[in-house]
Write a structure and sequence with these properties.
Blueprint: H1 35-51, E1 56-61, H2 75-86, E2 97-103, H3 105-110, E3 117-118, E4 121-122, H4 127-134, E5 139-145, H5 150-175, E6 178-182, H6 191-204, E7 218-222, H7 230-240, E8 251-253, H8 263-275, E9 292-297, E10 299-300, E11 303-304, H9 306-309, H10 315-318, H11 320-325, E12 339-345, H12 362-371
Parallel strand pairs: 1-2, 1-12, 2-5, 5-6, 6-7, 7-8, 8-9, 9-12
Antiparallel strand pairs: 3-4, 10-11
């Protein structure tokens, strides 16, 4: 799902204000749903499962060290803080995708070995952590970048973008994970280098519409709407996210600078991708709803958000109809976005609570997964 200084600015920038933080993305200590909550979710889910159009329901994972993932963790310790992700209270996972955030692109290019990194990958992103989720049929991806590593993306792309793509593909194959591109350069991004990265990755791992090859999944993060990361958004929408001859699997519309105040505000951002920006020069074309997810926070300031602890009061619920039914407007033929991504599991910031007991998110994200009948494991994605 970054910087170790305060970031202020772009309303569409992916950021979590904190003394130490990374950015992209209950009153009870129990990790199980109450009988009443299970019953309520079950009643709601009967109709929702039949009509649910949500394929992706995932969380960026910041780890316990604000996205550095610098320390190897034992599975018992990791599970004590993250059990809600694999068990929402009825034995089923709360999500069907986890994106471990973040890998430094320059260290990945150089296959760096240092106090925090092994062969370019943070020491905490171990195969054991990947398998912790995959053993529960939760797909896993690694996110390369984040706003802290924007300069490192620029340097890596200008140094050897092709080799960076080959290194990313090798890690994906070795660990059985997908790769997310989180390149947050808002001013003059190196699109030639980014194209070379994608081309070299795809030379090893071709686009797989079936989704069976987890390592072949390659995605990109865009801003919440079309008014930030404009050049990246234009390039991705024009060349990489087509429903015909797709290059990338899909995009994530990241969280804005703060949680939208209501469903309309969130949907306004997402609608910009669907409509495109015909008034821009050059224009940004429309993006098919089936080619992106929408991002929401699950922790805000020092409190767990309703999205974490109270599904009935959450944007997950109030935007659910829109996400499942929004019509295409110039690209794609089927209605509905791909789903949701949540920022962020565990500890993204010193100024935000962690999603660990007593603030674990089975009563928000977890009930949403049950309500919408989220497919676990993730099924092949809509292509049109």
């Amino acid at each position: 799902m970054k910087n170790k200084k305060l970031l202020f600015g772009m309303s569409l920038a992916l950021t979590a204000l904190a003394l130490v933080y990374c950015s992209k993305k209950s009153d009870s200590a129990t990790e199980n749903l109450t009988t009443e909550q299970k019953s309520t979710a079950s009643d709601r889910s009967t109709e929702a499962v039949a009509s649910s159009n949500i394929s992706i329901y995932g969380a960026w994972h910041a780890g316990s060290e604000y996205c550095s993932w610098a320390t190897v963790r034992t599975i018992p310790e990791f599970d004590s803080k993250n059990h809600w992700l694999i068990d929402r209270g009825d034995g089923q996972p709360s999500v069907n995708l986890i994106v471990l955030s973040f890998v430094n692109p320059l260290k990945l290019l150089n296959k760096t070995n240092d106090a925090q990194t092994v062969n370019g990958i943070p020491k905490g992103m171990t195969q054991d952590i990947v398998n912790y989720f995959k053993s529960k049929n939760i797909r896993v991806m690694l996110s390369i970048g984040g706003i802290t590593y924007t300069d490192d993306w620029n340097q890596a792309l200008s140094t050897n973008a092709t080799q960076l793509g080959l290194n990313a593909a090798a890690v994906a194959q070795q660990m059985g994970v997908g790769i997310e591109i989180d390149y947050e350069e808002s001013s003059n991004p190196n699109l030639t280098g980014l194209q070379a990265f994608i081309t070299s990755y795809r030379s090893v791992l071709q686009y797989d519409a079936s989704g069976n090859n987890h390592a072949a999944r390659l995605t990109i993060d865009l801003a919440a709407g079309d008014r930030w990361l404009i050049d990246i958004c234009r390039k991705a929408t024009t060349d990489w996210l087509k429903t015909t001859n797709p290059v990338l699997d899909y995009a994530n519309a990241m969280v804005p600078s703060r949680q939208p105040s209501n469903a309309s505000a969130a949907q306004t951002d997402w609608q910009e991708h669907i409509n495109g920006k015909s008034n821009f020069n050059p224009v940004i074309p429309p993006l098919a709803p089936c080619k992106f997810t929408g991002g929401l926070y699950i922790v805000t300031s020092r409190n767990a958000a309703p999205e974490c602890i109270n599904f009935n009061s959450s944007l997950i619920k109030s935007t659910g109809n829109y996400v499942q039914t929004v019509a295409p407007n110039g690209a794609g033929t089927t209605s509905g976005m791909l789903g949701y991504m949540f920022w962020a599991a565990e500890c993204p910031s010193t100024r935000r609570v962690c999603t660990t007991p007593p603030n674990s998110c089975e009563n928000g994200v977890g009930i949403g997964a049950q309500t919408y009948g989220i497919p676990i494991p993730m099924q092949p994605l809509r292509q049109q």
